């Protein structure tokens, strides 16, 4: 059976972010079901998912509350749009419930289906905002190198991972990228807080270069995820916010990974004291059980859009989808009932970070860093000089994890973890035993 699925897949399925022919030759691993923090493949392997899918399955797999909520909505109202002066009970309630957990004042929500669409929509909303203010020339978006904000033409232009640009001739005009606060890789002799200020000041430099009158917004994740799990020094965000105020630049927080408990609070903005004008959320919003995202608007942008006095020309067929909204409500219920956000910032997070930092003694680990249930492990040849190994060391380690039935992601030479928030202490013990085994095997291959 596995072979048959692999053959069909190889013939017809264009995979995201994959070398198509190489994958077709190798055969994709077929994941058939999942429960709790474990994935099961068609060959009978039970795999611990250290990444919660793509940083999204916050409540863990197999929660029947979410399945039942989706089933009920599918039977009652499988679909209706929200364009023609209509709403539905699920989406109406979802806005109310989200407003209870978002940072102060962010209480209007535009719904979409993916993080990319949320960020793309945000760009249109903010450009419209500035044009309503009589400043339509404010349309440059400054984001960061190595950022990941999605893959539509605009979201990929906001993204700063340079490999994402050449195949589509990106970035589009009106996008600029500045350095990101990667202390371990770029901090040199500076202490972390000094470095945080130094990098934050790059925003001011870029604004002065472009002219504040042309800049619409600064866009960033509270903790940069796919760009290498970059945890900002404490000094970074306060300076960024000061600069945005000084030059009247809006601040958009991309909370697609950080939202819904990942950093130990409801949003990364809470963890870092950020007061954004707008915010994108997706992934943990339904724990990945349904595609759903939103742009949250604070009063400045939200009121302007609300009171524009004309039709706002934007929206998706599935904006405010009843089934996705019903699942999001059940997901919020589970997060709240099981106190998963509190635990990520409390006992589960502490246990996770204790294990993570214990790996710092490993001969090929240069730094461990983490917050909530996000963790990174830097692989180095020389702990003192931070010299890296040549070649794809991260890929090697990831493959050793895979052989040991653990999913850990490699971003260059950085291994990252983002397990379901529902993970137990015993499961964390198991996860980190497997992680150390994979590090040992990697070190052995490298002769380290
Ligand atoms: N923003 C961030 C921070 C992300 O990590 C991602 C996806 O990983 C996105 C946006 C894009 O979301 P999607 O893949 O749902 O379009």
TrEMBL record:
It holds the Pfam family Aminotran_3. The keyword Transferase applies. GO terms for molecular function: pyridoxal phosphate binding; transaminase activity. Keywords: Aminotransferase, Pyridoxal phosphate, Transferase. Belongs to the class-III pyridoxal-phosphate-dependent aminotransferase family. PANTHER family: AMINOTRANSFERASE (PTHR43094), AMINOTRANSFERASE CLASS-III (PTHR43094:SF1). This is Putative aminotransferase.
């Amino acid at each position: 059976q596995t072979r048959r699925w692999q053959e069909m897949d190889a013939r017809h399925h264009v995979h995201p972010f994959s070398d198509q022919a190489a994958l077709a030759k190798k055969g994709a691993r077929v994941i058939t079901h999942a429960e709790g923090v474990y994935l099961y493949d068609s060959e009978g392997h039970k795999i611990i998912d250290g990444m919660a899918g793509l940083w999204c399955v916050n409540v863990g797999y197999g929660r029947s509350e979410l399945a039942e909520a989706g089933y009920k909505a599918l039977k009652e109202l499988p679909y209706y749009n929200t364009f023609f002066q209509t709403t539905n009970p699920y989406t109406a309630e979802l806005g109310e419930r989200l407003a209870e957990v978002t940072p102060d004042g962010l209480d209007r929500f535009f719904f979409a289906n993916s993080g990319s669409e949320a960020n793309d929509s945000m760009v249109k909303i903010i450009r419209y905002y500035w044009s309503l203010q009589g400043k339509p020339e404010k349309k440059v978006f400054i984001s960061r190198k190595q950022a990941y904000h999605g893959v539509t033409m605009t979201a990929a232009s906001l993204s700063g991972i340079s490999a994402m640009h050449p195949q589509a001739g990106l970035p589009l005009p009106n996008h600029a990228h500045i350095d990101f606060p990667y202390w371990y890789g770029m901090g040199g002799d500076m202490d972390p807080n000094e470095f945080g200020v130094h990098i934050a000041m790059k925003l001011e430099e870029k604004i002065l270069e472009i002219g504040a009158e042309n800049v619409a917004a600064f866009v960033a994740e509270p903790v940069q995820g796919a760009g290498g799990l970059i945890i900002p020094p404490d000094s970074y965000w306060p300076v960024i916010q000061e600069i945005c105020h000084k030059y009247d630049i809006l601040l958009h927080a991309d909370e697609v990974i950080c939202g819904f408990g990942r950093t130990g609070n409801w949003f990364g903005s809470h963890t870092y004291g950020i007061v954004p004008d707008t915010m994108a959320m997706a992934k943990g919003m339904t724990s990945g059980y349904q595609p759903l995202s939103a742009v949250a608007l604070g009063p400045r942008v939200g009121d302007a859009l609300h009171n524009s006095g004309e039709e706002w020309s934007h929206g998706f067929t599935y904006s405010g989808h009843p089934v996705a909204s019903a699942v999001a409500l059940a997901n919020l219920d589970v997060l709240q009932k099981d106190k998963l956000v509190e635990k990520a910032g409390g006992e589960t997070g502490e246990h996770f970070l204790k294990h993570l930092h214990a790996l710092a003694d490993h001969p090929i680990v240069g730094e461990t860093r983490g917050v909530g249930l996000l963790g990174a492990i830097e692989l180095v040849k020389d702990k003192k000089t931070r010299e890296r190994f040549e070649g794809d060391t991260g890929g090697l380690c990831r493959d050793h994890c895979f052989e040991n039935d653990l999913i850990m992601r490699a971003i260059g030479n950085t291994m990252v973890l983002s397990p379901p928030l529902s993970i137990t202490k015993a499961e964390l013990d198991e996860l980190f035993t497997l992680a150390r085994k994979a590090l040992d095997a990697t070190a052995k291959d490298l002769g380290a």
